[in-house]
């Protein structure tokens, strides 16, 4: 299915979808650009070991903050009544506070044992910050979904921009003041998210708290029961999913060292920052639009349009990274990070297929089939654990990450087609998207880039210049090809 409009009504709907996505994405893009621009400086200020310790701390917070509200925030978009939606937001907020307090107490009391368990004694002095970090990160999940329901995409964008810019500036400030340990990276991350909380939360405090009545306990209990599939299925599913994403940090540290974790972290960040810039934006808009489309029977069209949009946005840059990752990292981040570029090359194909499928997993929420998400994530975690253990047994980080990437590529490809089947989409219709001209053009261009790289072997700078020029002209082509859709309604 081509996203080129065929009728006036279809054109209007698609432009509206793209407008919402781009409105939310504009601020997200600026936010991620701030992050990307800070990386070449941070990579020269902080050591790979510091990045590794900060990554282990972040892994703990990411795993736990995602379930701090028992996933009730996902239900914010579902009620027809605005007041019910706000009550769910309050429910999520309260649960997050209690979760953060109790979890923080646990990590503070058991910091020595936990640091020893994961073979990272350097992290012990930072574990008292886990509780506050969980609250800061967890509350933001609720703000994001509430403001998405209100279609306050500019506010969300402003929050993302302020948070990312604040994180980068605080981390750089720590480094410039001589604190090149993980303290600056961890502190900057928490304070940046707190700033994003403030930006997104201010209108909620200012307006929404006074607009709706105070919820009674029985009303919260009733809504908690109505949407109990989220804590019952999505909470363990999210926990398992985040564990499957963060286990490389723990396994690489357990079998190797924080330095290897640092290489992996920066390589992964370079890939996921631009991917998240688009993917998370699309996911938020798709969730809101998807709920409407599911009710009126147009979910198949929305699914196909979203997949094609993501392919156009992500395929060619990922192919370029797969071909020239080591050279890009060598030139942009410094010689000591060339190994991280190799890791990025290994992870790139997996990152792309996840980029396609992850925003669409909201279909399970929209259809209230959260148990399917749980089944997938359990299977995914088991497969990844096996892959990582094999790599650890052979004491080879390249093998470990290669198996991790291969297993992820296969499982998320399966997920993409499963999601399509869930809404009644035939497999060949989805496969057909991957034969579009832009896909063939991207693959041919990447092969040409590989040939040029082989002839310019030993000259990293030339390879990087050619790669950047190719990406630039690819996006110029896309902007001209789909100019009508990117224009005003």
By DSSP, the count of extended strands is 0
Helix content percent band: over 70%
The unreliable regions are 1-8, 485-489
Q: N-to-C SSE series?
A: HHHHHHHHHHHHHHHHHHH
Q: Which structural class do the helices and strands define?
A: mainly alpha
How many domains would you count in the coordinates?
Answer: 1
Tell me what you see in this structure.
- This protein is mainly α and 489 residues long.
- The chain has one domain.
- Helices cover 82% and strands 0% of the residues.
- The protein contains 19 helices and no strands.
- Helix 5 crosses helix 7.
- The protein starts with 7 loop residues before the first helix and ends with a helix.
Please render the helix and strand layout as text.
Blueprint: H1 8-45, H2 48-65, H3 82-109, H4 111-117, H5 130-149, H6 153-176, H7 182-211, H8 217-226, H9 229-255, H10 258-296, H11 299-333, H12 338-357, H13 362-366, H14 370-393, H15 397-422, H16 427-433, H17 437-455, H18 460-481, H19 483-486
Tag the structure with descriptive keywords.
489 residues; mainly alpha; 82% helix; disordered N terminus
Briefly say what this structure is.
With 489 residues, the chain is mainly α. 82% of the residues lie in helices and 0% in strands. Helix 2 packs parallel to helix 7 (182-211).
């Amino acid at each position: 299915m081509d996203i080129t409009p065929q009728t006036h009504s279809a054109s209007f709907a698609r432009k509206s979808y793209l407008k919402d996505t781009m409105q939310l994405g504009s601020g997200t893009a600026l936010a991620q650009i701030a992050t990307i621009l800070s990386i070449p400086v941070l990579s020269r200020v902080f050591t790979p070991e510091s990045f590794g310790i900060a990554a282990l701390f972040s892994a703990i917070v990411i795993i736990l903050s995602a379930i701090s509200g028992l996933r009730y925030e996902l239900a914010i978009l579902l009620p027809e009544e605005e007041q019910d939606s706000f009550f769910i937001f309050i429910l999520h907020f309260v649960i997050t506070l209690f979760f953060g307090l109790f979890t923080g107490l646990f990590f503070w009391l058991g910091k020595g044992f936990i640091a020893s368990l994961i073979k990272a004694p350097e992290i012990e002095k930072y574990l008292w910050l886990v509780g506050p970090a969980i609250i800061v990160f967890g509350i933001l999940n609720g703000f994001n979904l509430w403001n998405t329901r209100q279609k306050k995409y500019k506010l969300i964008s402003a929050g993302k921009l302020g948070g990312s810019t604040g994180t980068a500036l605080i981390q750089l400030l720590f480094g410039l003041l001589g604190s090149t340990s993980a303290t600056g990276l961890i502190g900057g991350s928490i304070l940046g998210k707190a700033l994003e909380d403030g930006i997104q939360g201010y209108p909620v405090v200012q307006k929404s708290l006074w607009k709706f009545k105070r919820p009674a306990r029985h009303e919260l209990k009733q809504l908690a029961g109505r949407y109990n599939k989220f804590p019952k299925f999505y909470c363990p599913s999210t926990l398992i999913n985040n564990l499957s994403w963060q286990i490389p940090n723990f396994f690489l540290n357990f079998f190797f060292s924080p330095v290897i974790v640092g290489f992996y972290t920066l390589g992964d960040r370079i890939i996921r920052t631009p991917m998240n810039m688009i993917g998370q934006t699309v996911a938020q808009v798709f969730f809101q639009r998807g709920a409407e489309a599911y009710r009126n029977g147009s979910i198949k069209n929305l699914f196909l349009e979203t997949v094609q949009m993501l392919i156009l946005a992500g395929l060619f840059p990922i192919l370029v990274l797969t071909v020239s990752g080591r050279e890009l990292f060598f030139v942009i981040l410094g010689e000591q990070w060339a190994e991280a570029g190799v890791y990025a090359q290994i992870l790139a194909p997996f990152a792309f297929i996840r980029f396609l499928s992850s925003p669409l997993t909201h279909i399970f929420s929209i259809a209230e089939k959260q148990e399917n998400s749980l089944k997938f994530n359990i299977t995914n975690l088991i497969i990844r654990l096996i892959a990582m253990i094999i790599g650890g047994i052979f004491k080879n980080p390249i093998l470990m990450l290669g198996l991790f990437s291969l297993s992820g590529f296969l499982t998320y490809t399966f997920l993409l087609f499963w999601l399509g089947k869930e809404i009644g989409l035939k497999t060949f219709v989805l496969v057909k998207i991957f034969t579009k001209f832009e896909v063939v053009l991207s693959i041919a261009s990447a092969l040409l880039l590989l040939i040029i790289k082989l002839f310019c072997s030993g000259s990293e700078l030339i390879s990087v210049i050619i790669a950047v020029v190719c990406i630039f002209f690819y996006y110029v082509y896309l902007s001209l090809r789909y100019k009508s859709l990117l224009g005003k309604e």
